[in-house]
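notes to self, project folder thing:

trying the whole complex as one job this time. last attempt i did each chain seperately and stitching them together was a nightmare. three parts in total, labels are on each line so i dont mix them up again. if this works i'll redo the older ones the same way
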Amino acid sequence: MAYPASYRYTREHEWIKVEGDQGTVGITDYAQNSLGDIVFVDAPKVGATVEAGKVFGSVESVKAVSDLYSPVSGTVTAVNEELNAAPEKINSAAHDSWIIKVKLSKPAEVDALLNAADYEKFTSEETGH
Amino acid sequence: MRYLPKSPSDRATMLDAIGVASIDDLFTTIPAEYRLTGDMKIPRQMGEQEIVEFFRAAADRNANGYASFLGAGAYHHYRPVVIDAMVQRGEFLTSYTPYQAEITQGTLQAIFEFQTMICELTGMEIANASMYDGSTGAAESVMMAARVTGRSHIVVANTVHPEYREVLKTYAQHQGLPKRIVGYGADGRVDQKALEAAITDQTACVLIQSPNFFGVIEDVAAIAEMAHAKGALLIVSIAEALSLGIVRPPVEADIVSLEAQSFGVPVGYGGPYCGVLACKEKFVRQMPGRLTGATVDKQGRRGFVLTLSTREQHIRRERATSNICTNQALVALMTCIYLTIYGKAGMKELAEQNLAKAHYAAQALGATPGSKLLFAKSPRFHEFVLSTQEAPDAMNARLLEHKIIGGLPLAKWYPELRNASLWCATEQNSREQIDIAAAVVAGKQAATLAYA
Amino acid sequence: MATDTLNPAGVTSTETNTTPFVGERRKVASHINQNEGLIFEKSSPGKKAYRLSPLDVPAVDAKALLGDLAREDVGMLPEVSEIEIIRHFTRLSTWNYAIDLGMYPLGSCTMKYNPRVNELVARLPGIAEAHPYQPESLSQGAMRVMWLLQNCLKEITGMDAITLQPAAGAHGEFTGILLVRAYHESKGNPRKKILIPDSAHGTNPATAAICGYQVQNLKSNSEGMVDLAELEKLVDEETAALMLTNPSTIGVFESEIHKIADVLHAKGALLYMDGANMNALVGKTRPGDFGVDVMHLNLHKTFSTPHGGGGPGSGPVSCKKILEPFLPTPVIVEKADGTLTFNYDRPQSVGRVRMFYGNYGMFVRALAYILANGPDGLRQTTEDAVLNANYIRKNLEDLYELPYKTATLHEVVFSDRRQARNGVKTGDIAKRLIDYGFHPYTVSFPMIVPGALMIEPTESESKEELDLFIDAMRQIAREADENPAIILSAPNATRVSRMDEVGAARKPVLRWKPDAAVAPASTENSALEPATAAKEY
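result (full assembly):
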């Protein structure tokens, strides 16, 4: 699976696409693959504040719950309602299925995130365990 | 020991296979100073006959052959024999929680039927597979409302069963859920003015009981409106599930916490009973307790599974919706069978009989000299509050001489209701019992019950 | 017909799609069982399974008494006859596995025999029909049962005081931690955190959180035991208690339990014991003697009350004298004249955790079990439970990886490491056990063992049944080497195969609705999607 070069990544397996002060956040293909069939996405409400490295929601498979960690700090501007009815979209296209959009309050935080190559290296190390 | 399926030679063979000389060699990880060397001080081993005799003797020291007018959260209704014939089948009685769906479809389908029947009765969209009982169910539903609304204040009617309220207090004390108690009016219903004043935009939920502890049916629709106007949820606790056969279901509520003991579960000195939560579907992920859902197997055949289990403690651990683990599966099965036996027509007919018996008893007792039926004009199901000239304890002592257990004195929980007692009449109370009770309360010469 | 499409398993034949076994199934053969729809699908207006006695008081007009509050229609409850009810529930029952049919090797669940005399005595009218508010003078028998059970459980656990009120194990934990909190509060500081080993049951951290405590995770050492050095580092003046399961969830007795207790007590913290594994200890050692301050019991595990497909349980909490003032109200006390009474005047009590006195029917059954055993029977029971677990361990350790080699008591935990090389995981082996006629063991728990197979046979299994179980496990190990595919598709011999749990969770269908075909035509995919639900199921 190719990790889009235009995205940045967290070690907790979230991706973020940054355009100006707007960030779009989802989970990586690696994450959806290790979780298995996703049955529910618990996302914050529009207007909620998120903080870099802190939990902002969770994704659930049948037998596991996995926390979502925000790559950046900011305010939630949109939530992907489509996932309520069809959480499986994350399984079929993780990098196209965003969960929240965030207005960044500290854009510099993005620099600390992994790029695609480093993330791919990170996941292969984790798998190699 | 007759429950242990081993001969001495089995044990010897097995020890040999394990490679130890004696059974004590398997316990060496327990430090010697903590190992018991003698017998525990408990009664000696008994044979089956002795056990039955022991419990018969105990049962004989309880009230036997008494007519009872007690209700207050534990209701005596006739239990059709089919119930015990079915729940004593070993495949139900001795089965584990149905996590392995392929070999527990029996339990799962029955729970699915139970959930459906509870939805139909309560007017809610979904119901869980049961809770411990009505008191803990009410407390759990309050915590659920706090999660749903993100608010912490709770408003509780003091006409909710006092022991339910005590349980709620225990649960709420470490959850940071400040509570306001609202009293009742002259009609025995929650004081709506006080209630409206108590609800704020911080209020997570309003908890009422209907029929309430005095047997009076609350105005659920009006209270729901008040709660919803401030964005709070309305929880309706129902202690007497049979009332749903004749009383309009609380469809305006957001959560219904039902105690289903009346549906074929023995009064049994207080338990086990069968709590169950029902609610609007949109709250399902905040609902505690197990849920059974319909699905299909690999070949597309209908089947049932425990579902949405990520809400529960074994996955979420400290962030679970509740620490609840067991439900009351076998008791839920009893209620499911009961509802199947009475069905659509029987539930109504039976509830009407209860209404008639209680109406007759209320009239008869309320007409005794010096007595007064409290909250007389309010709609009731099968319980009523009787105020008497005589102290209820003295009255009840006289009733006991006639093999009748009278109403429950209320002053313990409601000091203002000093000489009042709570009476309940069901299909199990004959006219003769009621007439004798009324005669005794009136101070007249009365017969003692024939069968006593 | 609409009802035909709703009828489950209508075309199944377990014989024709029987999957081969590498050897021979010795415990089971396939047999025919009945299909059965939902009870609602058999309903037809006018059928009845009841007849009430004639009303001996004047009939009333509900509308006149209740006005708008009167209910016209009680909803879609079934209308069926008595024989249909008997067949319905009997047929459903035959789809269940049960202790009465065979062994449940479920680790930490203690699925033992449920004696039938327990059921009989719990149904004696003087007990089953006793009202919780009937006068104490007419309840002395019922109260005496509670009193004797309390005394027995105090003796068995080595404790000073007890409450029977909690309705289940997790409810007992809740009560126990409330006692801990009340105790610390009485000393001026409720403290902040509860220590919980990473091997603990999920209820432990859930309980601590509900009681307002932070959960601090305590890592196990390389033997799966409490790491004393780590414990010493973590315990401080803000530690309220350690919640410990002993023997641990890998079946090992914490040999340094007294040191654990000492470390806690030195900082004023308490030792809570999860009594889930008490079946390994009864009659051999007592938690009260080895430093435990408070613990819960599961009457539906150790004391033989039936599991009933998921409840009811009962979770008494016993404790040391220092915690007695905080026990839930009411408590039973014996008066000078020898009669029993409920004492509600308990100013330091944590309050009530349940209405009335608890799951009383379970008290009766547990006491009947204790009386049937006596001290010698209970000890022999524990010894047999430990003997059985060690026999299984000995006979499977050459084929299944044993991650912790420490001597175990009543249960043994293997891992699927060897089988996983062929793509066979613990969950698959568990499902394959079903084809051999056994209920699966506990899968993927405790979390400290990746791919865990947690096996607890209890004392109720004969050597013959154990040998059949061992034989099945050994054949499955061989299948994992020779033909893993037949394990991965298991179970194959059941009336239904693996369920679509993902579908169930994504689009929950939590209640039955009538078939769309018989519903008004306008109900186009309304709430809860009854139309699609009815078609699919």
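what i see at first glance: Chain A touches chain C through eight residues (CB under 8 Å).
need to look closer tmrw
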